[in-house]
Amino acid sequence: MELPISNKLSNLGSPFGGQGAVAIIGGGLAGLSLSIQLAKAGYKVVLFEKEKYPFHKVCGEYISLESWNFIEHLGLPLSKMNLPIIKNLIVSSPGGKTIESNLDLGGFGISRYLLDYELSKIARQNGVEIFEETKVNDIVFESGLFTISTSTATFQSTVVAGTFGKRSNIDVKWSRDFIKQKNNKLNNYIGVKYHVQTTFAPGTIALHNFKDGYCGISQIENDEYCLCYLTTAQNLKTNNNSISAMEKNVLQKNSHLKKIFSSSTFLYQYPVTISQISFDKKSQVQNHVLLIGDAAGMITPLCGNGMSMALHGSKIAFDKIDKFLKKQITREQLEDQYRIEWNKNFANRLQMGRVIQSLFGKIWITNTFISTIKYFPFLIRRMISSTHGKPF
Ligand SMILES: Cc1cc2nc3c(=O)[nH]c(=O)nc-3n(C[C@H](O)[C@H](O)[C@H](O)COP(=O)(O)OP(=O)(O)OC[C@H]3O[C@@H](n4cnc5c(N)ncnc54)[C@H](O)[C@@H]3O)c2cc1C
Q1: Which residues, in sequence order, are CB contacts of 19 under 8 Å at separation 6+?
Q2: pTM, whole model, 2 decimals?
Q3: Ligand 1 test: best mutation among 164, 167, 251, 292, most atoms within 8 Å of CB?
């Protein structure tokens, strides 16, 4: 097929004025933050996002403060946005018992609708070419060059970053190992999110457990709250695939959730939902594509830190891609160094997240765990700190 010349990255594919071209597949936090760093360093960057900004995403919207400086450095003035800072954690068991803890580092609240949109604007201002409503269907590597196919055109580039999130058509196309896994304790989850107006302590995040899941609530911008939960696909199936029936029959058995669901104003008619979430191990490089964010490995939302891992992962990837495009390292070194650095930073956190995930869900285990651990506050703090990183 003859390509429109403007769509050909191939003329940028080899070093161009001393700089190279990078294609980024997926414009969430990992993709947008990587694109901004590369564009600021002077590289040609093209980013593909299948949706159109701004758009809602399933996410608890609590970001660990470890990311604050990095996001500001990208160009988003968080300090001027009057965002809620969150320093306390409440966890309730399905039976309604609670434990509370200070969060040593803490976090802040901002919707993905706002955050991703603002970062996409910063990316464009820095020269990133963003193709919205453009789904990438395939990425093929041959003779040192990637060919990226979308439904309308084909592009070529020297480096590709796969930042396509938890589960995408590319994962299926590549038949990645986590896609082939049978249903187990670490996969087949669903996520549901609302924005609500409610009365709740602004500086607190609460995690309310229910049978086979947990629901978080914390404040975001404009005095709104994000109410977001994760549960098994089986829970929904048992409730005739009805979200409202599941919320009534299962979530609201926890008295704290019953109060929230009955007293809040829900700001959109239908929730945002996703399915087939997997916390199984993933590869960090596949078919020579560097995978960043959830595409490289997803931490359980209970640990509240996937966004910081996506952002931090982009910083690690940027450093390696920069060296590769400057010809300081080979492609093989780029891939090895990225994989090693990623694992050094995140592998233990992910493992701890999987262990914690297994302690929640089953009613008696969660009830017993929460009744017991409240007498060991140092253990609570240690669990929190082992799933969080340091400012980067
Ligand atoms: C229920 C739940 C609650 C969570 N709560 C929190 C929380 O409170 N705090 C926290 O830090 N983390 C939380 N997370 C995790 C967090 O949302 C993710 O870790 C984070 O969004 C990862 O960013 P990303 O850039 O890797 O992926 P995403 O933000 O998902 O971005 C991927 C992008 O790629 C696009 N895309 C996919 N395929 C293609 C394609 N073929 N072509 C073009 N575009 C494509 C998608 O449209 C999407 O915009 C939660 C997750 C869940 C499921």
Answers
A1: 42, 43, 44, 325
A2: 0.93
A3: 164
